[in-house]
Description:
single chain, 180 residues, mainly beta, Protocatechuate 3,4-Dioxygenase, subunit A, five-stranded mixed sheet, four-stranded antiparallel sheet, globular, Protocat_dOase_a
Amino acid sequence: xxTSTPSxxxxxxxxxxxxxxxxxxxxxxxxxxxxxxxxxxLDGAGQPVPDALLEIWQADETGEIxxxxxxxxxxxxxxxxxxxxxxxxxxxxxxxTVKPGAVGAGAPYIAVLVFARGLLKxxxxxxxxxxxxxxxxxxxxxxxxxxxxRATLIAEREGERRYRFDIHLQGERETVFLGF
Length: 180
């Protein structure tokens, strides 16, 4: 007689080895074209998720996707298109990066992966920028998202070169996640 073993979620373990000191700095904050993206990861009850890990992947300011060998160590001027940040006790995260240019016919965006307790696999979403509203109308992915849900993919502008993008894993304000 065989006994089934129940599936298990992984974590929390993100505090070891995955986050690294320069992970949130896709570009150094002193660069004149640097932007700051911050936000919180929240569960279905609106409570912070203090042990989540976010990764971002993006094109550079001209819309070029980096294809050269990259790494987690940057020389201060290089742009790898990749960043990683663990959340703090309030579910907060931040990235210093550049505003991406459009890739193809779509609107500029940053791809966001969220790893968190209770998830067997990361969830994928996109962060779009509010000032690109005209380009949002022609974006193929946004066109497939119901109008009432599109706002969950658009960051809020908090000032000059500053954006806020909260991610709700479940509930009434759940962020739109993409299936692959």
